[in-house]
Design brief:
This protein has about 140 residues and is an alpha+beta fold. It has one domain: RutC-like (60s Ribosomal Protein L30, Chain: A).
Length: about 140
């Protein structure tokens, strides 16, 4: 039996008469996906901000998102998805409210995950961000 012969499974081919692939026009290639992961609540001095304080850590993590995006030439309006992790499930409403203020109430894709631990024992909040940088 060959790899493409599994009982009860029918394999199809690609219909090359239709364009089902990604747009490869110049317009589509004028954008770049920016991803930054595990953005933590660290101050400019590299020290953890707000040990034991979910609110302080969330505010610092989202402030760091702003700085890191600016360094990549994008702003908050360019965010297409945020994932935020909280090591205290009870902090969800507070972190969500801070996130909503951070994106100025815009509706964007997002995911919240309550986790048992993050990058360091005292880190309570981390953020992943996905943004699109448009060429000028």
């Amino acid at each position: 039996m060959s790899d493409d012969e599994i009982p009860g499974i029918e394999f199809g081919g690609i219909d090359e008469t239709t364009d089902a692939g990604p747009d490869t026009s110049d317009e589509a290639n004028d954008e770049r996906l920016i991803t930054i992961a595990a953005i933590g609540p660290y101050g400019d001095d590299g020290r953890l901000v707000g040990v034991g304080d979910v609110e302080a850590q969330a505010r610092q993590a989202f402030a760091n998102v702003t700085s890191l995006l600016a360094a990549e030439g994008v702003g908050l309006d360019d965010i297409i998805k945020l994932t935020y992790y909280v090591a205290d499930e009870g902090g969800l409403p507070l972190v969500t409210a801070i996130r909503d203020a951070f994106v100025d109430g815009r509706v964007i894709a997002g995911t919240f995950a309550a986790v048992t631990t993050l990058s360091a024992p005292d880190v309570l909040v981390e953020v992943d961000v996905f943004a699109i940088r448009k060429s000028s």
